[in-house]
Hints:
- This protein has two domains: 73-239 and 335-445, FAD/NAD(P)-binding domain (3-Layer(bba) Sandwich); 241-332, no CATH class.
- The chain has helices at residues 8-17, 30-42, 86-97, 138-147, 166-179, 227-231, 291-313, 346-350, 398-404, 407-427, 436-445; strands at residues 58-60, 63-65, 73-82, 102-105, 127-128, 132-133, 183-185, 189-196, 199-207, 210-221, 236-238, 241-244, 247-250, 269-270, 277-279, 285-286, 322-326, 331-332, 336-338, 358-362, 372-375, 387-389.
- The radius of gyration is 25 Å and the shape is globular.
- It starts with 7 loop residues before the first helix and ends in a 6-residue tail after the last helix.
- It contains eleven helices and 22 strands.
- By secondary structure, the protein is of the alpha+beta class.
Amino acid sequence: MNYSDLTRRDWMKRLSLGAGFGVGLGFWNENEAEADLRIRNDAPPGQLAQNLETPPCRLEDGKIIRPQSPIPKISETDVLVIGGGAAGTAAAICAARAGAKVTLVERYGYFGGLITGGLVLKILSHRATGNQLVGRGITEEMLQRLEKMPNGLDSDYRKTEPNVDAEVYKYLLVEMISEAGIDVYLHSWALDAIMDGNTCRGAIFQTKMGPQAILAKQTIDTTGDGDIFASAGCEHEIRTYWIGLVHRIGHVDRAAPPAGTKKPRGLGDGTPIPGVQWVNMSGPDGNGLDVVTLSKLEMSHRKQIWKQVQEIRNTPGYEKTFLVETAPQIGVRVTRVLRAVHNMTLADAENGRKFEDCIGIGGAWFGEHAAWEIPYKALIPKTIDNLLTAGRSTAAEPKMSELVRVIVPCWVTGQAAGCAATLAVKNGTAVRNVDYPELRKLLLEQKVFLG
């Protein structure tokens, strides 16, 4: 028999009959690898490719010139959500549930943003003074689904601030996004807004296929860094803030320090995985848009984390502790913040200000304090139409951004943005002209808490 004539399925069938091989389980072994290698070696050559439509950049008189070229349109959609973190996934899911055709674009290969890729596992701001649950709607649905999953949450979200497992949440988001029928483009980095005068018509993305365009009736910028509203010409602020890097350590439960041993620093907080803890890092102030700053901090933070873990391992009784992982996504907390129709202030929150266009409620995360309202106008640019933001770039003064940027307010503002964009599409209006009573009705139907 000429074994090179066998297909991969033939090989798997034959191997499954052999001794020591799990029938039907598809375990990888040396024989299967040899079969795959034969198939690859016998495969026809790839197609010859030459990009003639997009000429390369050229050097002229010391200046780098990027030639003008047409950009292919990969898709058209009702609502385009750019950034698949906490705010973006909430916006996309809620917009799709409200009846819009939704496209979600994310630069990484997973959803969740800093919750998953950044390993920021603490769920904050869903409760307020007196244990009042304010994070409802998509927030409570996610928490309820997580608590039913193995290792989803480490405590009861109704009574405390739980920690989530990043891998469980990555899977849950894939499940929810698939259920909602959302078109997804991963590994796609947002470049520019597509503008028609003062109206946003979609965005351009950099991919391995080159730049691609998506046209949209409404666009939501949930990049976290305001990449799209900045390129669209929206007024905004650029802020510096702590930039850290989170890591996880394991076998903390196996520590057996002798009596009198001082507990080492850097043990962090618990996770749903027994013996595994996540360790936050404040980091220095820096510009999270500056690639030089980000590159230096990535390297210095990993050195610092390694040194800290070795110090723990050198503490008597903690020798079995080990570094599980460092976050693949650096912990940038705030960069660009929109200057919107209304910019939230800490005084608004402290004084319990009521807004006629309230789209959700935030809770406490440092100490006990009362709930605070989020106005729809904080998501709307002053002059650019068909564009909203949500998440940490929501319009707020620096002290107020401390409350806005954490996970639950990102879910809340994302849900509101998704619902508002859908209503704008259905009614053929700009998002700034969405009828608030209609938006309030839709939010209540999606079980959002509005006070």
